[in-house]
Amino acid sequence: MTKVRYQVFAMNFVACLINYGDRIALSVAAPFILAEFHFSPALWGIILSAFFWTYSPFALLGGFMVDRIGVRKAYTICMLVWSLTIPLTASVWSAASLIVARLLFGAGEGPQAPISTKLTANWFPMRQTSTMLNLAQSGTTIGPIIATPLVVWACTTMGWRPAFVILGALGIVWCAVWWFVARDRPQDHPRADAAERAYITADHETVPGTANEGKVRFWALLRTPYVLALAIAFFAYSWVLFMFLTWYPTYLVEARGVNKADLGGIATLPWVAATAGLIAGGFIADRLIKRSGSFVKPRKWMIVGCLVAVAVCFGPSPFVQSPTLGLVLVCVAIFFLLASYQYQALVVALVPESHRGRLAGVIQMCSTLAGIFAPIVTGAVVEATGSYTPAFVVGAALAVVGALAVLVLVREKRIVSPASPVTAAALA
């Protein structure tokens, strides 16, 4: 049996790595940029948020795009746009110009998550979805591990502007390799043999509604309780993630007294924990799926349990006097946060193939609304109170809300009537 699926996966992993390496660059360079421009915390929060003003709607548009034109073309367009726009950050001269650069960059990166979800659903068996999605997503945590010290090094040796040009060049190289390696699905790939195609698609018919895709309506799926639950929980997940991503390096410098030169080492530790959480979470979920026979129940309880653990660790972290203990609590919180990354895997388990991209785009858009508000709210809180503590408490409270939404709204039911607008099995 051929192994073409792993080559496609490797390209997806590298795209995720580049995605977050690019995305973390502004936050890592923040102490250097602020030293040049002297933006207030509230204004800097708006600048950090600007990326998500376009990222959020383009996540939804990306879901529709990948359902319409396929994975190969959609990923190429997405990577080209963000790789050609991130170097614009190097040319900014004011807050307004920096906001414009971030808006363009966010539009390019927005479609990536639903494209990655659709790719994984097309190229791997259902029983491996959590593992492969989380392994690919671990590129988004390994990317910052690699990028953080490199960006700090570039900022201290060459200045902060050249780092953004280098990052853009990496994406252009990826596009050339991707177009050669990838196809939309195994049936389209000339190097995937019949055995590999059969292995990948053997359990795809167990997806709810696959046999009745023509009768499934997008708007009916959009109104289902599990979509609302996933949207709320993913929003809570993303609030904590994006608050951490955009403000944590600055928090370490301003509130914990970390030297900017030491930031490259210290700020990467939570990302190491995040990588471990993603890999462990995907592996555990798929192991539980094999034992339980349900594609949904293990993922549901992974989300609930992990978000509660996030709240328990993230909220108290700024209250402890020891910087080391505070860092440990944040690392544990980020571990469980990323272990909860079962949201898109549940979309694959619950949604017919024809609508996966757009439903993945919907919950991705809802989650990235947190990216719009979390940096702004955090900046406003810091400016108003002179403290980061309330922002951590808000993140913990939202994690609890997300856990409760999944606990209450994702229920076991089976709808089998041919007349139903949604012919699906939603296993809680």
Topology overview:
Blueprint: H1 4-37, H2 41-69, H3 71-85, H4 95-109, H5 112-123, H6 129-137, H7 139-157, H8 161-181, H9 194-201, H10 218-222, H11 225-254, H12 263-266, H13 269-292, H14 297-314, H15 323-339, H16 343-350, H17 356-385, H18 389-409, E1 413-415, E2 424-426
Antiparallel strand pairs: 1-2
Walk me through the structure.
- The protein is an all-alpha fold.
- The chain has helices spanning 4-37, 41-69, 71-85, 95-109, 112-123, 129-137, 139-157, 161-181, 194-201, 218-222, 225-254, 263-266, 269-292, 297-314, 323-339, 343-350, 356-385, 389-409, and strands spanning 413-415, 424-426.
- Helix 14 packs antiparallel against helix 18 (389-409).
- The protein is globular.
